[in-house]
């Protein structure tokens, strides 16, 4: 037997609830009647627990309680925000659990209509919606057989709007009204329908009229007095309004007391009694959500609805893109949207807010004070948007770092803005841009062994190459990188371009240019500066390039590899064809070799390297480092021999010793410091680093 896919509307009330299902053949919402009743659609909002897993709801629970089989549990929708629990029959229950049980049990009434069915989509209508009840019902939806992605919560007013607007169009040529009269008294709900733009905009406004007609009057006032008072209400409420249709709802209108007031109501307008407006309206909303690509002929505006679309603008690759944070007409309590982007030349995120009724757009700049002290384009921000109500937007922005290159500072910025009342600053000028990366499911890093760096995105790859251009070689652009770009970054076009360039024997410069052009991460001016460096590299002596590579190994603390690299450079310098290498350059190589030896605590070799450096470059920094290396090695006699050999003045020696003593004051004369002390000293003697 075919499994019937049902579209459901559910009115969850504090006293009674109602269910509707969408009849696709008739294109209308059908009421579900209580079992054993004569057309009654009201399901009492009560539960009765029989055993651990057995519950009765509605009229069955009322009947069981009357027979003494247990105690009714009611009021589980009242004061939901402030009182999340309820005590009944000596036990404490979570209201969200009771609501979920009630929904599950009451939805079993559908079994009398459909032998085999599944709920494809359901909208629950309640008097007032809060974020808490929306989140709780979404969380508990599995208990009553609805996927959380196929569940919507909306207010009674929103359900009324959808009910009215899903009727024949001649019923809403002009405005629409609804009077609700029950135990809570008389209320009126007016729909203002504007057709000046398409789709039509529907705005609801409510009027409390309990001071004119209270719920108590239903039993106390005579029919004549009720009729007269209602006529007075109609004369006041309906004056100067052009209304196509009026709906009457609630048990207060079920009697025969309307006479004069009925004539007033029906004068020039259609009037209907509808006692299932909220469930039916919720059902129509479900139907529209399922068929959202086919039906867009109106937008409902009420206290549930954010009255504007909000988006941020930036770039992705070479394309200007706009990312929508919320669309106009969204329920404020359902909005929980997150975006990620990189700040480029700005400390401000600009919200663009477009009113979907007037279509007027304004900018709301949100400045992030105290950004992390990092290079430009390395501050990744995650931005989350939620709402307190239809107008108050709560924005949370967090520093997410920059992959494996810069860790997050955990800095958080929180902003609270009224999107309806914000006044634009006419002097504000936007600068910089936001860079949107591709959202990736797999966070698999690419690892650069040379620098011990992990990267996770195309933007981080660009930054790494740009800022480590002397550490990157043609070997960097290999199959392993291409595979990661293709499969992890999901950029097959970039990977294919690299492969084709390599096949045709492209230069290192062309590989780098291909990356920068594809990503559009750096500006034109920055790419021009990079091209100048690439030209420089292309014309550099191979020995100079190898020295720079060894320098980078020191920078990334790979000291033994650096020593090996410097020794290779020294070997090449000694060859006859390296006669164009200057003594200054040779001295600097030995100086940096000495720095690498210092970091691995080989002070004797460091002293020898610094001595050789000074003999070539005549740089006093190399001489100072030679003397410090002797001190670090505990070679006092060597220190004084050097002072004599180089005819050092007392002032020079005093300066060297003064700096050393400040950093190694706890080390006795002629004593070699232990490794821990040596590390502290080396951190302070910055001159022992690369030249």
Structure commentary:
- This protein has 691 residues and is α+β, with helices and mostly antiparallel strands.
- Helices cover 36% and strands 24% of the residues.
- The chain is built from 21 helices and 28 strands.
- The strands form 7 sheets. Strands 1, 2, 3, 4, 10 and 11 form a 6-stranded mixed β-sheet that branches. It has a 6-stranded mixed β-sheet with strand order 16-15-12-13-14-17, covered by helices on one side.
- A hairpin with a 5-residue loop joins β21 (348-355) and β22.
- α10 (479-487) packs antiparallel against α11, α14 packs antiparallel against α15 (559-573) and α17 packs antiparallel against α18.
- It is elongated and about 125 Å long.
- It starts with a strand and ends in a 7-residue tail after the last helix.
- The model is unreliable at 666-670 (pLDDT under 50).
Radius of gyration: 39 Å
Largest sheet: 6 strands, mixed
Calculate the mean pLDDT score and round it: 89
- Give a count of the beta strands, DSSP E runs of length 2 or more: 28
Shape summary: elongated
Q: What is the beta-strand fraction?
A: 15-25%
Low-confidence stretches: 666-670
Total number of helices? 21
């Amino acid at each position: 037997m075919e499994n019937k896919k049902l579209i459901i509307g559910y009115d969850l009330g504090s006293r009674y609830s109602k269910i509707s299902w969408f009849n696709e053949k008739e294109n209308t919402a059908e009421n579900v009647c209580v079992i054993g009743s004569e057309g009654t659609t009201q399901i009492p909002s009560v539960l009765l627990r029989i055993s651990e897993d057995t519950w009765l709801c509605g009229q069955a629970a009322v009947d069981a309680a009357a027979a003494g089989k247990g105690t009714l549990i009611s009021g589980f929708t009242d004061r939901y925000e402030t009182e999340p629990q309820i005590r009944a029959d000596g036990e404490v229950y979570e209201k969200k659990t009771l609501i979920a049980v009630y929904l599950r049990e009451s939805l079993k009434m559908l079994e009398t209509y459909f032998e085999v069915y599944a709920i494809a989509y359901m909208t629950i209508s309640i008097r007032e919606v809060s974020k808490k009840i929306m989140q709780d019902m979404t969380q508990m939806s599995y208990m009553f057989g609805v996927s959380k992605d196929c569940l919507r919560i909306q207010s009674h007013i929103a359900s009324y709007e959808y009910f009215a607007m899903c009727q024949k169009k001649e019923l809403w040529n002009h405005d629409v009204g609804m009077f609700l009269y029950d135990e809570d008294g008389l209320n009126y709900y007016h729909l203002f329908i504007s057709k000046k733009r398409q789709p039509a905009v529907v705005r609801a406004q409510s009027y409390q009229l309990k001071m004119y007609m209270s719920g108590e009057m239903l039993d106390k006032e005579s029919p004549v007095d009720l009729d007269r008072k209602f006529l007075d209400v109609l004369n006041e409420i309906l004056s100067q309004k052009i209304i196509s249709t009026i709906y009457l709802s609630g048990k207060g209108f079920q009697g025969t007391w309307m006479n004069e007031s009925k004539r007033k109501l029906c004068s020039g307008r259609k009037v209907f009694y509808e006692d299932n407006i909220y469930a039916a309206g919720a059902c129509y909303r479900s139907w529209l959500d399922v068929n959202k690509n086919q039906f867009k002929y109106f937008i409902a505006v009420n206290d549930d609805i954010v009255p504007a679309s909000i988006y941020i603008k930036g770039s992705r690759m070479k394309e200007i893109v706009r990312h929508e944070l919320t669309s106009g007409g969204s329920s404020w309590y359902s909005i929980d949207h997150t975006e990620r982007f990189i700040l480029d030349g700005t400390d401000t995120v600009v919200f663009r807010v477009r009113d979907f009724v007037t279509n007027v757009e304004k900018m709301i700049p949100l400045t992030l004070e105290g950004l992390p002290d990092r290079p430009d384009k390395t501050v990744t921000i995650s931005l989350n948007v939620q709402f307190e109500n239809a107008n108050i937007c709560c924005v949370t922005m967090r520093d997410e770092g920059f992959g494996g290159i810069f860790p997050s500072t955990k800095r958080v910025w929180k902003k609270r803005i009224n999107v309806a009342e914000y006044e634009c600053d006419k002097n504000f000028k936007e600068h910089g841009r936001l860079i949107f990366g591709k959202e990736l499911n797999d966070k698999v890093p690419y690892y650069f062994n040379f620098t011990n760096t992990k990267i996770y995105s195309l933007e981080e790859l660009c930054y790494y190459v740009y800022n480590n251009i002397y550490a990157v070689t043609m070997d960097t652009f290999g199959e392993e990188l291409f595979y990661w770009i293709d499969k992890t970054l999901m950029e097959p076009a970039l990977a294919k371009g690299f492969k084709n360039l390599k096949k045709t024997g492209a230069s290192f410069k062309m590989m780098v240019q291909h990356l920068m052009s594809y990503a559009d991460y750096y500006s034109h001016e920055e790419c021009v500066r990079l091209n100048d460096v690439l030209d420089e590299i292309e014309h550099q002596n191979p020995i100079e390039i190898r020295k720079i590579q060894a320098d980078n190994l020191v920078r990334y603390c790979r000291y033994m590899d650096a020593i090996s690299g410097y020794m290779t450079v020294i070997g090449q310098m000694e060859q006859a064809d390296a006669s164009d290498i200057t003594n200054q350059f040779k001295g600097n190589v030995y100086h940096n070799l000495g720095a690498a030896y210092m970091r691995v605590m080989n002070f004797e070799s460091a002293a020898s390297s610094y001595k050789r450096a000074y003999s070539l470059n005549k740089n006093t920094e190399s001489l100072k480092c030679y003397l410090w290396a002797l001190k670090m090695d505990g070679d006092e006699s060597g220190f004084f021999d050097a002072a004599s050999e180089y005819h050092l003045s007392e002032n020079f020696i005093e300066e060297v010793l003064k700096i050393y003593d400040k950093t190694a004051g706890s080390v006795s004369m002629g004593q070699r410091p232990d490794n821990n002390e040596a590390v502290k000293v080396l951190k302070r003697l910055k001159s022992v680093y690369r030249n």
